[in-house]
Structures are given as C-alpha cells and as structure tokens.
C-alpha cells in the first residue's frame, strides 16, 4: 500500500541541530515530557493506515518533522516536512495588507501530500522496469532518465528527490517565494538524499505567472522536458497563472504530470483541466487512481476520470486522486 511507505522518525531533541545550515529545527512544546509523548504519538501515527485501512490520508507528517520514505528501488530516504510559517513570515503587500493567496500557499507546504508519493512511486517503478528491460507503455509516462525536470509548488520535494535518483539530467525545484519549504526543508532533503547523485539539482523561488519579469524564468523558457505539478490546484484564481507557467517552461516535446487529490472537491480539479485545454495544453492520458486498494497482482486500481460523480461523499472521494499527462496542443 502506498501510504505504508511513510513512517515518522524520532523527533529531534530540543536544541539539537540538523546537519545543514539552512534547515531550522522544528518548534517544540511541553519539553519536559516531549520524548515519551512524541514517540507514542509517532508510533500511533505510523499504524493509522493499518488501523483504518479504508481511510486514505491526504497528507503525511507534521510541520518540521522528519519522515522515512521507504523506496523499493532506492532504499530509505529521509524527508523533512517544511516548518509551519510563523507570524513573522507574513508578507505584506505594497499597501500594508497581507495577501491571502500568498498566505494560503504557505499553509499548503507544511505537509507531505499523497499526490507527491504517487509521482515518486511512478518514477521509481519506471526506473526499475526500464533497468530490467520490461518497461511497458503504461509505465513509460513516468520515465525521467536524461530528462530536464521542473517541479512546481514542490513543498517537501519528494518527487524531485526521486527524479534525481532515477538519473534525470537535471532537476529544478521551485516553490512560491513565501513558501516555508524554501527556508530549509528543500535544502535538507537535497543534501540528505542526493549527496552522491550525478544529477544537477537546484532550487529556485518562483511565483506562477511572473514570467517576463523574472530573469530566471526568461533564461529557462522552453527548457524542461518534464514538469511535475502535484496537488497544486487549491486556489482556483491561480489556475490560469499555473497553466501559463507550464506553457512557458515546457520544451516542445515536453510533458506535464498532473496529480491531484479531491480534498476540496472535484469541481476545482475539473476547472484546472478546462483552463489548461483553453490555454493551449491537451490531455494525453488521464485516469483516477485508488490510493488504498490494489489489484490481485499488486498493481493499481484505476477507473475513468469524471468531473462529477453523483452521490460521492468526502470519505470516499478522499481515497481517489486523478493522474494525468499533459502536453502542448499541436
């Protein structure tokens, strides 16, 4: 089961340091009894998928927590979840008010989302089958060897870490300039898991839609052959900016991986696909994946993508995500 790959690591002692100068330690409360409480809480959290097998978590971890992601191909990877943004990190606009959209983005970053795990699993499976000479057409959509990869709204950046391990030519990790992921977690995850990789891995703050005015965006227009966008669809007003950003960075033969849970309903995800098609992208492949169940041979359980499903409640909706492959319309 996908969610069984994740388990929490012991929380750091108060005052202990993380082996990178850019990653701040998480906040601690109730320090007198922190060890016993944290270990019991983490142990319970690790067993939740087994205690409630029909309840698919949308996200994993707590702000600033370290998680162990077990990869069948690359072994155990240590992933730090971005820290929770503090009040001191609020970014006022020119008139002194706080931008609600930017503040919301910061709150989306402090978990590891299940959509990121779907991308990671797809890439490592493709890498495994390709090494055996058994790559099929269904799995080939996830191949990254020799590709130039861009992750948008990366958060903890697990997909980028896996792409680097799968021998992508280069990986660029981006998130909004206000995202807490850029204050330490991304750099920690790169240094902890990619010390020996030959793939060039960089991180870059980027605000969707600010293309002509961003020197980095201008320099990298049309250079990425794979773009990752996992659970980036919360803010409907940003869909057009997101699609413009995809179109801007996408190489002529490039592909976009779209993976999204239905945490806020199907309508907002369907709206993104409509926006993408209206603005020059086309859907090459699309399906829904069950995040809990597996087939008899251990494979994925899939069904047809539908913008609306009559009678679907929040509990059932949470166990599904949509997986799509987009490219430029010819």
From TrEMBL:
<protein>
    <recommendedName>
        <fullName>Nicotinamide N-methyltransferase</fullName>
    </recommendedName>
</protein>
<feature type="region of interest" description="Disordered">
    <location>
        <begin position="1"/>
        <end position="36"/>
    </location>
</feature>
<dbReference type="InterPro" id="IPR019410">
    <property type="entry name" value="Methyltransf_16"/>
</dbReference>
<dbReference type="GO" id="GO:0008757">
    <property type="term" value="F:S-adenosylmethionine-dependent methyltransferase activity"/>
</dbReference>
<dbReference type="InterPro" id="IPR029063">
    <property type="entry name" value="SAM-dependent_MTases_sf"/>
</dbReference>
<dbReference type="GO" id="GO:0005737">
    <property type="term" value="C:cytoplasm"/>
</dbReference>
<dbReference type="Pfam" id="PF10294">
    <property type="entry name" value="Methyltransf_16"/>
</dbReference>
């Amino acid at each position: 089961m996908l969610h069984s790959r994740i388990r929490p690591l012991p929380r750091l002692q108060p005052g202990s340091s993380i082996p990178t100068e850019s990653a701040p330690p998480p906040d601690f409360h109730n320090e007198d009894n922190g060890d016993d409480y944290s270990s019991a809480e983490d142990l319970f959290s690790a067993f939740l998928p087994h205690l409630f097998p029909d309840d698919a978590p949308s996200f994993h971890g707590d702000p600033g927590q370290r998680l162990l992601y077990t990869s069948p191909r690359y072994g155990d990877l240590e992933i730090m979840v971005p820290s929770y943004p503090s009040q001191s990190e609020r970014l006022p606009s020119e008139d002194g008010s706080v931008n609600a959209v930017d503040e919301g983005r910061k709150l989306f970053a402090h978990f590891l989302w299940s959509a990121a795990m779907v991308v990671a699993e797809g890439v490592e499976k493709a890498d495994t089958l390709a090494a055996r000479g058994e790559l099929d057409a269904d799995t080939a959509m996830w191949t990254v060897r020799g590709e130039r990869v861009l992750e948008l709204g990366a958060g903890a950046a697990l997909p980028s870490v896996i792409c680097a391990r799968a021998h992508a030519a280069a990986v660029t990790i981006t998130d909004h300039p206000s995202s807490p992921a850029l204050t330490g977690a991304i750099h920690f995850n790169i240094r902890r898991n990619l010390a020996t990789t030959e793939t060039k891995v960089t991180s870059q703050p980027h605000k969707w839609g600010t293309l002509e005015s961003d020197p980095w965006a201008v320099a990298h227009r049309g250079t990425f052959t794979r773009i990752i966008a996992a659970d980036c669809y919360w803010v409907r007003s940003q869909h057009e900016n997101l699609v413009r950003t995809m179109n801007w960075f996408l190489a002529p033969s490039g592909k976009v991986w779209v993976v999204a849970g239905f945490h806020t309903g199907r309508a907002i995800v369907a709206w993104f696909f409509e926006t993408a098609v209206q603005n020059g992208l086309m859907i090459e492949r699309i399906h829904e994946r069950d995040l809990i169940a597996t087939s008899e041979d251990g494979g994925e359980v899939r069904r047809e993508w539908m913008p609306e499903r009559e009678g679907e409640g929040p509990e059932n909706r949470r166990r599904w995500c949509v997986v799509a492959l987009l490219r430029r319309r010819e």
